[in-house]
Amino acid sequence: MKIQEQARDGHALLGRLIEPFTVAMCTRAEARGTLVSEPMSALEMDAAGDLWFTTRKGLQPPDDVAALNAGFVDSTADVYISVSGHGRIVTDPARLESLWMPFARPWAADGSGSADLTLLCLTPACADRWDAAHHAMTRLFVAEPVQPAGDEGSSAATRT
Is residue 72 included in any domain, yes or no? Predict the structure, then answer.
């Protein structure tokens, strides 16, 4: 996974921890409430801290990725990371081409030009690390709720 330079300490730590990963298990809730998980190629953590994955078009409706969790596990190194936030489907062939990595080929036999391939962007709201050796969980960061301008009673937006 490519990691761009991060301005915030918690995001920088997350980037260092997940950099070796090429696949994450992404979990979303279907409209009827059922949780569904699937492996996705982890391509990049951009400078804003967003995580970019490949996914197949039509695999999930865009509304189903609004709440999303990505799990990264390396049991031999005792690295267990959970990143929760808001997802969105991004249909941008040029961006997909710029992010493409050969390790994503199992999900797209025709490479970045596969007709059924698109991007999933996860904007993290929080990230946790489980430390098996010390039987502890560490919260790497939590996004700070912010009020949209002119809307004092809403906390729908987040700032990290």
Answer: yes
pTM recorded for the entire structure: 0.80
Largest Cα span, the chain: 50
Is residue 73 within 8 Å of residue 82, measured between CB atoms? no
Smallest CA-to-CA distance from 68 within 88, 95, 48 is with 88
For the residues 23-29, what does the mean pLDDT come to?
Answer: 91
Containing domain of residue 91, as a range?
Answer: 2-144
- In sequence order, the 6+-apart residues with CB closer than 8 A to the CB of 102 are none
Whether 18 contacts 81, CB under 8 Å: yes
As a whole-number percent, the residues of the chain with pLDDT over 70 amount to 76
